[in-house]
Backbone:
């Protein structure tokens, strides 16, 4: 009789221990409730016990949680409308307060999302588009995080960070801005091309003027050089003629023969008695020349490219 009672008692104790034992994981914290009232807070992992039926356990996450906020379209201080996509990271710092105010994580996410949306709209309404996109984005996010943290502490939540993932203009505004930017760039390109054409014309004009001056100077110098060369040639010829007039007359006649008797399109009809052929019959070249005629024959110009032939008698 007594042994049966002890066995029953052991069985009851075992059932109580089995039903009352619970494990808290390292990623969790637990609240032990006695008839709905918070009795114990357990934040360390391990095996714990509660009274069956009388007490129950509520588990809350101990890790840093993510909150993705729905996209909002606030109006900025410069009257522009942007599309903002933000998120927050938080953790439950006070499980008792959190359970008393919101009880579940889903309810906490909804409350925190409301706070974050309100803070984003209020703060972005005070700044310009350039500040949020380029100049001081970190500063704006820090102000939003501070504002959300104040309200989140009332829920037992510690806000770790708030980030704006994307801040862009709406599609219609983006297309309008793109069109305006494209027009501005086209105008700028047209202006640059016009300036380039003006500079090109100025450079070409300067180059043409310099070329004209250079050509004129070159022609002037060439004429001067040619004149000096002709003068030197005439002086040399005059000196040679004065040194030996007979040989000079013979030499000039030989040159005239060589030039005048070449094959060409021009025909020169002369009499065999002409002074042009004086050296053919008389080596001295004076047989057919009168006084002063030899000088005239020597100095007479000879046309290049003509052919000379004696006339038939």
Residues:
């Amino acid at each position: 009789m007594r042994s049966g009672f002890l066995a029953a008692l052991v069985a009851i104790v075992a059932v109580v221990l089995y039903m009352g034992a619970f494990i808290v994981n390292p990623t969790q914290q637990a609240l032990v409730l006695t008839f709905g009232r918070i009795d114990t807070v357990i934040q360390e992992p391990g095996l714990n016990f509660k009274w069956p039926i009388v007490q129950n356990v509520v588990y809350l996450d101990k890790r840093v949680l993510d909150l993705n906020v729905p996209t909002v379209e606030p109006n900025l201080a410069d009257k522009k409308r942007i599309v903002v996509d933000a998120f927050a990271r938080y953790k439950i710092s006070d499980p008792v307060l959190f359970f008393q105010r919101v009880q579940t994580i889903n309810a906490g996410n909804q409350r925190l999302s409301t706070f974050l949306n309100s803070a984003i709209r209020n703060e972005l309404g005070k700044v310009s588009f350039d500040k949020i996109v380029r100049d001081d984005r970190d500063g704006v996010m820090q102000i939003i995080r501070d504002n959300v943290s104040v309200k989140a502490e009332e829920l037992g939540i510690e806000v770790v960070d708030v980030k704006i993932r994307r801040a862009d203009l709406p599609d219609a505004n983006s297309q309008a801005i793109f069109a305006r930017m494209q027009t501005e760039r086209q105008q700028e390109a047209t202006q640059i091309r016009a300036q380039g054409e003006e500079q090109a014309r100025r450079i070409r004009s300067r180059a043409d003027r310099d070329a004209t001056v250079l050509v004129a100077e070159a022609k002037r110098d060439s004429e001067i050089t040619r004149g000096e060369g002709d003068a030197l040639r005439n002086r040399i010829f005059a000196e040679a003629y004065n040194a030996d007039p007979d040989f000079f007359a013979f030499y000039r006649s030989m040159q005239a023969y060589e030039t005048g008797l070449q094959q060409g399109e021009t025909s020169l009809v002369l009499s065999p008695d002409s002074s042009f052929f004086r050296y053919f019959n008389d080596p001295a070249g004076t047989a057919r020349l009168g006084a002063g005629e030899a000088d005239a024959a020597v100095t007479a110009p000879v046309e290049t490219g003509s052919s000379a032939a004696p006339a038939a008698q």
Observations:
- Residues 171-243 form the longest helix (73 residues).
- The longest strand covers residues 157-168.
- Strands lie at 21-24, 28-34, 37-42, 46-49, 55-61, 65-68, 83-92, 157-168, 266-270, 306-310.
- The radius of gyration is 59 Å.
